[in-house]
Structure formats: C-alpha cells, structure tokens
Design brief:
3 domains, repeat, Lachesin isoform X2, immunoglobulin domain, Immunoglobulin-like, rod-shaped, 413 residues, 3 helices, 8-stranded mixed sheet, 7-stranded mixed sheet, single chain, membrane, alpha+beta
Length: 413
Amino acid sequence: MRVNNQLPIPARMATVIAVIWVLLHGGRLTSAGAFTTVTTRPDPEFIDQIGNITVPAGRNVKLACSVNNLGPYRVAWMLFDKSAILTVHNHVITRNPRITVSHDKHRTWFLHINDVQEEDMGKYMCQINTATAKTQYGYLHVVVPPDIDDSQSSSDAIVREGANLSLTCKAKGSPTPSIRWKRDDGSKISINKSLSVIEFEGDTLEMSRISRLDMGSYLCIASNGIPPTVSKQIKVSVDFPPMLWIPHQLVGAPLGFSVTLECHTEAHPTSLNYWTRENGTMIAESRKHKAITTKEKPSYKTHMKLTINDIQEQDYGSYKCVAKNPRGETEGTIRLYKSAPPSTSPSPPTTDLSRKGNKFQSNLNEIDKSEQKSGDLDRKRKYNWPPENDMAASITTTMALLVMGLIAVTAIR
C-alpha cells in the first residue's frame, strides 16, 4: 500500500501505523451484539533491544526483534525514516527483493537485508499490534569505503608556465571521505611563491603562478576510516618555450684533433634539437660529425653533444645548437678556433717524480753525481805547490819577525 507523500510526516506516520494495525488484525471486525468470552492473557513485551548495527555495504545483515508472550498478536517491521512498511508477520510487503523475514517459534522476528546498500541506512521500527501499539527502534548504519567520482574530479592538466592551476577531487562514501593531496615523487606542493607544503587537505588544490618545477604527478587520496583508502593520479604538464645554456661558447682545438661541443636545453613539450653551421646548414650524422642527445632529469631537460673528428681548416668557425617546440624556439652559438698543438716536454731523469720517496731518492742521486763531478774536476786540475825547503825558510823568517816585534813593543812600554 502506498502512502501519500504529500501528507505531513506525523500524518503519514499515523496512516502507516493504522494500516499496520489493520493488517495485523487481518481486517476482521467483531459485531457489537455478539457475546465474547474474555480470556486474560499477559500482554506481549519486548525482551531485548534491537540496538544499533553497523555493517559495510555489500554485506548481509539481520535485525532481531524478540517478543515474549506474543500470543495471537502480530509483529511488523518498517523503515521509519522513509515511512516504508517492510513486513507484517510472515508476509513481505516491500517490493525490495533483498528483504525477507523469518522467526524463531514466534519469539524472535528477524528482518534480513541482503547485499546492504547505502540507501538501507536508517531507523528501523518493530511493532506489536496490541490495543496500544508497542514499538521499539534500532538503527542500521551502513559504512561505505571511499570511491573517487571521476565525473566530478579533475583529469590530467596542461597549463602554461606562470598561469594558475586548480585541481578538484570528489569522493563518495560513508562516513563522508576526507581528501588530501600529495606529489607522487614526495616533493613539496607549491601553493604560491611563499608557501610550499608536503601535504594539502581539501577537495580543491589551488596553485598560483605555476612553474616547470611544479610539473609531475599529483595524488588525490580519499579516506574515511573504512578500508581501502583510494587514490587518483593526476598528471600536470607545464608548457614553456625552449631555453639554452652553453657551458663553453669559445672552444679551441688543433688541426687533426677531435673536439666535443655541448649545449643544455629545457623545453616542454619536448623540443626538436639539432646542430647547424653559421650559414644555417644542418649538420648530418657522418664519420666527421657525431651528434648525441641525452634525456636528463627532470624530463624537460636535454643534453646535446656534437663531436667533430679529425679537425681541418674548414671545420673552424661558428656552430649553432637549435631547439624548437610548439611554444617557441631558440639557438645558441659556439665558436671553434684553431689552437696550438700540445707541446711535448723532455722526460724527467727519473721514471716517476710524483711519489715523495722516489723524488727524495732522485735528489740524493743528483747530489752524489754532482759531488763525483766536482771531485773529478779537482783531480784533473794542476796546482803549483812550493817546494818543502822553501816552505820551511818562509816559516822561519815569519817567526823571527814576530819575535822582533814583541821586543820592540816591550821596550816602548
């Protein structure tokens, strides 16, 4: 039987209770003139509480209504919040196929709900059709793990460098899930130029003046205490025109040698990178020229190398590294000039002068050699020494002069 939804809630409840009462009494009326035999029976009473039950969505649950001394009376179940009659005694009234009723010798009446859904949550009423209806209530709380609603959440985003970005993440569940944001690589989230956080809470993540450093994957994580926690990955791409950095703009190399020129680029989307001569002629791969482009981290960085083998006169001049993407293009110039070949110095007298022991030993050897050379020279020289008799006469003359000097000094005093 359908209840008129236009009636106020109290009126609707009164109508439902009246319907239940009629159903419970089987629609039978007793003639006022008939004689009846009165038999005294104790009134039925509830002997236990239905209580509050929490169940995860998808599980089966049963609510128990225990009655003592039921006798000829009947028991009905209803979903109080929706004014919906579910069962009356052994009969299922609702059209919900997931709901059934059973009893334990008319003492405990079970309301079975299979594959519980979030819509089953609410206040349930068990009623006995006594003269003054007896009722008791229980509450079914359905918990639902979080589920991210893709239709209301952001997908992968592409934004120009310097623009603002807003990411949204919506999730359903019971209790209502909370949302937090993290970067997939663990780095900080740059909210603005003065605020960076490891984790941000809220449905919407706002970032102002985004830069290439903010590029990467962001995780929207939804949780409500009911496992499992779920997440969604949102990839943020930041587009900007190519930029170049050249370590050495002037490079020298001698004839016949090889040399490597280098450029570092940053661009997103990934740029087209190549080398040209000063007149714009693109340099093709050959035995003379070998170009290598290496991806670096972060992914928007690239390392360009150009190796020039067996340099000849015509190889000197300017070279350009060029980078192009849909956002723009740029180029850098490196000048290759002729330098003198490396000089060859004579080998040192010892094999290894870098070690202290060998160096010290070599010095001693040099000293010994110099002494030997000076000794040899001394031996080769000829000195004119005076004869021995002449030396003795000279010494005698000198001694005589000294004695005479001393006598003269004594006489003067």
